[in-house]
Amino acid sequence: MQIARETLLRSYRAMRTIRMFEERLHVEFATGEIPGFVHLYCGEEASAVGVCANLTDNDTIASTHRGHGHCIAKGVEVAGMMAEIYGRSTGVCRGKGGSMHIADLACGMLGANGIVGGGPPLICGAALSHKTLRDGGVAVAFYGDGASNEGTTLESLNLASVWQLPAVFVVEDNGYGEATAASFACAGTQKARAAGFGMPYIECDGSDYFAVHEAAGEAIAHARAGKGPVMLHVHLQRWYGHFEGDAMTYRAPNEVAEAKRDHDCLKLFRERVTQAGLFEDSVLDEVDAAVTDEIEAAVMQAKDDPLPQSADLLADVYVRY
Amino acid sequence: MSKKSFRQAINEALRQEMRRDPTVILMGEDVAGGRGGSAGTADAWGGVLGVTKGLYEEFGETRVLDTPITEASYIGAAAGAAVTGLRPVAELMFVDFVGCCLDQIMNQAAKFRYMFGGKARTPLVIRAMYGAGFNAAAQHSQALYPLFTHIPGLKVVIPSSPYEAKGLLISAIRDDDPVIFLENKVMYDVEEDVPDEPYAIPLGEANLTREGDDVTIVAFGRMVGMANEAADRLAKKGISCTVIDPRTTSPLDSETILECVADTGRLVIVDESSPRCNMATDIAALVAEEAFDALRAPIRRVVPPHTPVPFATVLETLYMPSVEKIEAAVTATMNHRVTEKV
């Protein structure tokens, strides 16, 4: 498969941005300056970026608790995200949403979601809008193996099939729903679930950007062509806990180390493109340096930005009492 | 202008708004009716009580979407469609079924605009039937408007007549925020004169169905008719009542309620929802806080007992507020004598 050089470089930058954004959050959260919950996506970057490389601003995605990666991959501005996570008035949601609710409808990002299984029904609606308004768009629901057991998700697979919606259901399977393993909690297989709703099923290795890009490309093309919904099952690894502060006592001591050693999507990407002679290491090093600067600036800016004012409490309230 | 039933008034509002705006779509269980059945959709149901009958015929399958019996997915889909360019009117059938999809209403649609920093609009209407009086028993008879009213981010409309239903539904469809539109299932065949042309009744403005000097009665939905009947009977006894139909519990026109209580000094609230944390308690608290000095007697509430709705007619009748109970409450408040402090 041929992927344009420009797309590859943009994707590498997006993956690196997610990685550095999150590793920085990991450190910053430990200082106690970030309020609320933070759920990190580190290790799963190739999934969000591989899928979203096939989408435009006209397409819609819905995300999960672990939404930073999807936001960045879909083009939400990094500085605004950082400010949002710091609870600043300059945040993407003006400090009203926080990490779990970052949304930017202007770029087709329907929101991270604080409710497990909240996204798939919304994506049926977005797909219905694309179909009804005939704008050529597709809608993608990212959800975890945990959410795959929610009734909302199963109902949405059925509804999307019944209505033949241009929807793609991306199961990001990192093997854990919070602290409980998918091997315990998911009966049967995702493949059988897709088949049960008459839906094509594709699976891929989520640490391999190229595999995700190709599989998602196929799924999205199918949906875009009006042939109905598809399930894409991405196998991946979560490097950090369910939330920051989770000691991950439910994982064997070597599990994360092996994931980092053998399944680091950024390392694998770099090896692949440099060995193929597509990019010199120096080009990618430049990207890394630029992203480092961008994240540093975003953190400094967020810490410096104004907190919401008391008048903001009632801004965007439309039902008076 | 012609006589139309509550059902016809709602149907007409939907039809006229769908003609006016191609982004208005309907979805729900059997809203077309008969999809996939051996007889086809020629005589489509239009929902279990026929409210959307004929709309599938006029607007077709891209505008009138039958759903599987999966409230979570299609109410969620309605919310998702609303934030991405359509104006869905989703029928939840019996409001009791909201337990299957409350997350999509409470945590998704109601939250988008505020939680996303003002960047989302969710022009969604969810229609549902509420209320007892149909022998439909505990899982098909609840009046859950206080539940929705409690959740910031939802507008809640309870029409009290065919005229009100048409004008309020048109406003609900044109509104850019999520609206819960609750239809009393006992009222579908009630008729009155309703204009043929479209008209909009603003959300959040109470309607005074009569004005009097002695007692203010606040009543919701089907209770408004009962309150008016009670007021007629009381007038013959020389007691004159103001009857307020707030039309919407969210937003609530508290100004009108407070002004009327200031004039009459007495308040009776008629609410057919379960009595704990319902609209009657909410309005009683409002008046106690804002108009305490105007009160010449304790506030009285005409509400059901705190129990699931019973099935048997004799029990359901006992359960419901009635004209007699309203009359008795008004009489009691009139008879109250404030004990002078020694």
Could you explain how this protein is built, in words?
The complex is a heterodimer of chains A (321) and B (342). In chain A, 46% of the residues lie in helices and 10% in strands. Chain A is built from twelve helices and seven strands. In chain A, 52% of the residues are buried. The model of chain A has no long low-confidence stretch (mean pLDDT 96). Chain B is of the alpha/beta class. Chain B folds into two domains: 2-194, Thiamin diphosphate (ThDP)-binding fold, Pyr/PP domains (Rossmann fold), CATH 3.40.50; 207-335, Rossmann fold. Helix content of chain B is 35%, strand content 18%. Chain B contains twelve helices and 14 strands. In chain B, the strands form three sheets. Chain B has a seven-stranded mixed beta sheet with strand order 3-2-4-5-7-6-12, with helices on both faces. The mean pLDDT of chain B is 95. The chains are: A alpha/beta (321), B alpha/beta (342).
List the main descriptive attributes of the protein structure presented here.
heterodimer; A: 321 residues; alpha/beta; Rossmann fold; 5-stranded parallel β-sheet; two-stranded antiparallel ribbon; 12 helices; globular; B: 342 residues; 2 domains; 7-stranded mixed β-sheet; 5-stranded mixed β-sheet; 14 strands; 35% helix; oxidoreductase (chain A); pyruvate dehydrogenase (acetyl-transferring) activity (chain A)
What topology does this entry show?
The complex is a heterodimer of chains A (321) and B (342).
Chain A: H1 5-30, H2 45-52, E1 60-62, H3 68-74, H4 78-85, H5 119-133, E2 139-144, H6 151-162, E3 167-173, E4 176-177, E5 180-181, H7 182-185, H8 190-196, E6 201-205, H9 209-224, E7 230-235, H10 253-262, H11 265-275, H12 281-304
Parallel strand pairs in A: 1-2, 2-3, 3-7, 6-7
Antiparallel strand pairs in A: 4-5
Chain B: E1 2-5, H1 6-20, E2 24-28, H2 55-59, E3 64-66, H3 71-82, E4 87-94, H4 102-109, H5 112-115, E5 125-130, H6 145-149, E6 155-157, H7 162-174, E7 179-184, E8 191-194, E9 207-210, E10 215-219, H8 222-236, E11 241-245, E12 248-250, H9 254-264, E13 267-270, H10 279-290, E14 300-302, H11 313-319, H12 323-335
Parallel strand pairs in B: 2-3, 2-4, 4-5, 5-7, 6-7, 10-11, 10-13, 13-14
Antiparallel strand pairs in B: 1-8, 6-12, 9-11
Helix pairs in contact in B: 1-7, 3-4, 8-12, 9-10
